[in-house]
Please model this.
Amino acid sequence: MELGLKGRTAIICAASKGLGRACAEALAAEGVNVVITARTEGPLLETADFIRTTYGVDVTAIAGDITTEEGRRDVLAACPNPDILVNNAGGPPPGDFRDWTLDDWHKALNANMLTAIELIRQTVDGMQERKFGRIVNITSAAVKAPIDILGLSNGARAGLTGFVAGISRKTVAHNVTINGLLPGPFETDRLKSTLEPAARASGRTIEEVAAERAAMNPAKRFGRPEEFGAACAFLCSDKAGFITGQNILLDGGAFPGTL
Model:
């Protein structure tokens, strides 16, 4: 399917690896010039070189922390008028809510709610003026089915989801859509980090715990990042202009609800 994206420009956050990188690659494969950002410069530059060489698009790599004002300023200086914005940030650590301080909550809300809102605020008006914009927020399946040890993530990402539910109905008249992609278990470093507590508690390896968890999924496996990237690319395409304010769950059928 021709997605009508060739020559567009995208900002993709936390794109040096994992699901962010998968989205950057999928968009680049469609001819989108990408501005990618992540905290660690080395892996980010390696990813930029790979995308540039493999897909033949313009790639700008901005190393920095997108959850800070400085990090956002640097990215927007490099790409002040993006056609596409993919919001993404590493999730807060798992744990027991009794152990979390207000500072822990502030960090989680800043990273997984407020940063996305601020990037939307600084880009959406330009998208509306140009009559094209696609904003995708990578959140979590925990928005649909909360995970008890991921309370910080549950709260922050649900807050972002509630905010987008309102604004996305305002922007769509200008051909600017805002949607959420809710990943379940995908083969990423983040998944490994969430399995570590279970592995330690049971005296097993992460690989053993991972195999057990994968077998419990209806798909009998974890998701592949490229599958996630493909879903992102479609939501960003000119074919998806009638989809807004939606939260699309990619979890292999793990959520058992009808709706």
